[in-house]
TrEMBL record:
GO terms for molecular function: diaminopimelate epimerase activity. The lineage of its organism: Bacteria, Bacillati, Actinomycetota, Actinomycetes, Micrococcales. Belongs to the diaminopimelate epimerase family. This is Diaminopimelate epimerase. Its EC number is 5.1.1.7.
Length: 302
């Protein structure tokens, strides 16, 4: 049984299930900010066997009602806060695919009515723009996590897959901060992206202080890459929006550009996303979002 002291609330709660390129989320509307979303409750909701199932859980809450002072300070620019949690119950600063699903939910529910609006996240304000079937998110500023090492070598980390006691050669990687941490691996030509076993968390050196999402990249052509990802707090997922941006930015950096000079198409297991460099060292992510189910869950059954 879940620890029901986490909810000061009736046990029945509305939810919506959605995904962005098959990175899937349980959305919990909390317009009165009554739901105390603890780690255990998140884990149980995200459980694919005993709960609803998802890579993450997103609480939809007024920005002004957040208990996080940094988030509350965004209330004059964004009415709604995307309170994102990973499937293991941990809190993350940002979720790129989540922003599109969250924005699509806000529009469907009439909580936002324009084609363009801002949302609040723990990683700051993100601008949303609906364009046809796609949703574009201004992901805001990005940065190299270790600029001096990266500028000197093109890489600042090593990544190794766990392989049943047999140590593989470590691969060179670049740490990119998208609000949340990423380590992007330049996969050697000889390695088959599709064959990687990403069941276990890759080992990253130096050990990132906040943990990291790890992306594996294969260049397919001019402005076109394929990526697989092991997400912090989740495991392998079929897509990661912040990871897709980090992968495109790292590939661009390795090609000698401090800012991306072209648009990138990124293929992930769950579909295709577009990354575009913006002015001021910012980056835009565009892709689809789908809301696939609505229901009511009795939280006491989890
Ligand atoms: N899937 C998300 C990223 C979710 C957070 C990540 N696992 C972390 O802990 O940083 C995306 O689309 O960006």
């Amino acid at each position: 049984m879940a620890d029901m002291t986490q909810t000061r609330e009736p046990r029945e709660w509305r939810f919506t299930k959605g995904h962005g390129t098959e990175n899937d989320f349980v959305l919990l509307p909390d317009v009165d900010a009554r739901l105390d979303l603890g780690e255990e409750l998140v884990r149980r909701l995200a459980d694919r066997h005993a709960g609803i199932g998802g890579d993450g859980v997103i609480r939809v809450v007024p920005t002004a009602s957040s208990d996080d002072e940094f988030v509350r300070a965004q209330a004059d620019r964004a009415a709604w806060f995307m309170d994102y949690r990973n499937a293991d119950g941990s809190v993350a600063e940002m979720c790129g695919n989540g922003t599109r699903v969250f924005a699509t939910y806000l529009r469907r529910e009439g909580l936002e009515t324009d084609d363009e609006f801002a949302i609040a996240t723990r990683g700051g304000i993100k601008g949303i723009r609906f364009e046809g079937d796609l949703v574009a998110t201004n992901m805001g500023p990005w940065r190299l996590a270790e600029p001096s090492t990266a500028e000197a070598d093109g890489f600042d980390a090593l990544v190794q897959l766990r392989s049943d006691g047999v140590d593989d050669e470590p691969w060179s990687a670049l740490s990119v901060d998208m609000g949340n941490p990423h380590t992007v691996v330049a996969l050697p030509e000889s390695v088959d992206l599709a064959a990687l076993d990403l069941f276990h968390a890759p080992q990253v050196r130096p050990v990132p202080p906040r943990g990291t999402n790890v992306e594996f990249v294969r260049v397919l052509g001019d402005g076109h890459i394929a990526m697989r990802v092991h997400e912090r707090g989740v495991g392998e997922t079929r897509s990661c929006g912040t990871g897709v941006c980090a992968a495109a930015l790292a590939t661009s950096f390795w090609a000698g550009h401090d800012e991306p000079t072209q648009d990138w198409t990124v293929d992930v297991l769950g579909g295709r996303l577009r990354v575009r460099g913006l002015l001021n060292h910012e980056v835009e992510l565009a892709g689809p979002a789908a809301l696939v189910a609505d229901g009511v869950i009795d939280l006491s059954t989890l």
